[in-house]
Design brief:
Length: 490
């Protein structure tokens, strides 16, 4: 029993304990005839066979740990506990091969089983509702009046930003790239922040990969996570699929989509591992104040809670004076998410990143990336770096479009105040108006089929407030808005 004692940290396991285990499991938990044949060879007093089982190492140790845990749960004894719970007992009863040996192996001194594997909980997230919705309409609807990104550019537009860029792009090497991201690209990303060096930046294939790998690196089954909601589905769905317990920190229209920090304090538990926020916010365009951010920072620091801050719309504040510090600049353990898709309008590059001084999270994410994309597209990294060298020009272009289109929206919603509730956003290219008459799903469906204008019903976020997402950073937004107004006046 040396191996079992080593695994449990208890050197005093004896035949008496094994006999106690057999007696309790076979006689009290289930009749012997309910076990699969491979376990029916045991009789209540047959300790010698149990000892023989222990000779086969890790495989049998896992089995003994299960039995010991069952007794602890049933009788609340002080016997050492393994890490396996009651759910696995059903697998034993059902004859799961990964937890016990066949009768032939138990009775043979010559056949040893393979080492017990560590089987993680499979990640099986629910379908991504937003992407499934866009798959139906994004490339067929004439007007996308719900786009969450800014107007894009052509490769020629990007190359024209810098003398010599076209020739350099044509000569760019198409081999594998560095897994962490090209050093020169990481330097440009680091320039966005105050305390971040290139070694604190990990580049991914868009924000989606970054979110997924962060959640896998940071969370274990049973962890408690608080998520700013409504939100991009990945921000809670991946955590949920890992086995985390989710509490939703809800933004409400009646509060101008602001978060209630007293509610946050009520949601925090001793086992809270992570808080996820998105500011500027998708889908409402709400922007946290500096005082609110400071309160969140203090709460996380005092309670030892990780903070994951989705900042993909940062630098698109409608008033630049409202811009917040990046979360990764506030505390070494906080993580900031960025991407080329939203504020820069370069979704086709599929380049995103996290910035953090949390070495443990960073290294775990880097290791996980070896199992996803391994490295990024060489042309995409080149173009992303070029764009970031000129990010102020791109931001000025996009903010100009946003400000112009917001003025049109203010006038539109003033003309139709009986039909809509308009909460003016403070940042980013999206808003979340409320439809005051009729059902929002029916409204959006009729609009796209009759007028070719696509809006995103709030039900895609599982939000019950009859709202819809509206995007206003596209050049054809005025024309799309006119078509919407024609539809209303028909």
């Amino acid at each position: 029993m040396d191996l079992f004692a080593k695994r449990t940290g208890n050197p005093t396991l004896t035949n008496a304990l094994l006999d106690h285990i057999i007696q309790n499991i076979i006689l009290k938990v289930a009749p012997a005839d309910t076990f699969p044949p491979s376990l029916q060879i045991f009789k209540p007093s047959d300790v010698t066979q149990f000892q023989k089982l222990s000779q086969y190492g890790e495989y049998s140790v896992e089995f003994l740990l299960v039995l010991t845990e069952l007794i602890m749960i049933q009788e609340k004894t002080n016997y050492p506990s393994g890490t396996i719970n009651l759910d696995l007992f059903q697998k034993i009863r059902d004859g799961a091969d990964i937890f016990f040996l066949s009768s032939a192996r138990l009775l043979s001194d010559k056949v040893a089983p393979k080492k017990q594997a560590n089987y993680p909980i499979p990640m099986n997230p629910a379908p991504f509702k937003l992407e499934r919705y866009f798959a139906r309409y994004e490339f067929s609807a004439r007007y996308l009046l719900c786009s969450s990104d800014c107007e894009s550019l052509t490769i020629a537009d990007l190359l024209a930003l810098e003398l010599g860029a076209e020739a350099a792009f044509k000569n760019h090497w198409l081999g594998y790239t560095e897994s962490l991201g090209a050093p020169s690209l990481r330097r440009e990303i680091a320039n966005i922040y105050e305390t971040i060096a290139p070694e604190h930046v990990l580049v991914h294939a868009g924000a989606q990969e970054a979110i997924t790998l962060f959640m896998q690196a940071a969370l274990q089954p049973g962890d408690h996570v608080i998520v700013h909601w409504p939100c991009y589905q990945s921000l809670f769905e991946i955590a949920k699929s890992i086995g985390a317990e989710i509490s939703y920190w809800e933004a409400r229209a009646e509060n101008g989509w602001a978060l209630d920090f007293d509610e946050l304090e009520r949601l925090i538990r001793p086992d809270t591992r992570l808080i996820v926020v998105n500011t500027p916010h998708n889908p409402t365009g709400w922007l946290m104040s500096r005082a609110e951010q400071a309160r969140l920072e203090l709460l996380c620091r005092e309670r030892g809670i990780l903070l994951f801050s989705d900042e993909v719309y940062r630098e698109l504040e409608h008033n630049p004076a409202d811009r917040l510090p990046a979360a990764c600049d506030l505390d070494p353990n906080f993580v900031s998410l960025g991407v080329m898709s939203k504020a820069y309008g370069l979704a086709g590059l599929r380049i995103g990143w996290v910035a953090t001084r949390n070495e443990s999270i960073y290294q775990k994410m880097a290791a996980l990336k070896d199992y996803t994309t391994i490295c990024n597209s060489a042309p995409s990294e080149f173009l992303a770096e070029l764009a970031l060298r000129h990010r102020q020009e791109l931001m000025a272009r996009n903010l100009g479009m946003i400000q112009h289109n917001l003025t049109l929206l203010d006038d539109f919603f003033a003309r139709h105040s009986e039909r809509f509730l308009w909460v003016r956003p403070k940042a980013g290219p999206i808003a979340f108006p409320k439809l005051l008459q009729g059902d929002v799903e029916i409204f959006c469906d009729e609009l796209v089929h009759e007028s070719g204008v696509l809006l995103l019903p709030g039900t895609i976020y599982d939000h019950p407030g009859n709202c819809f997402r509206l995007g206003f950073a596209r050049r054809n937004m005025p024309e799309a808005l006119a078509r919407l107004e024609e539809f209303l006046n028909r």
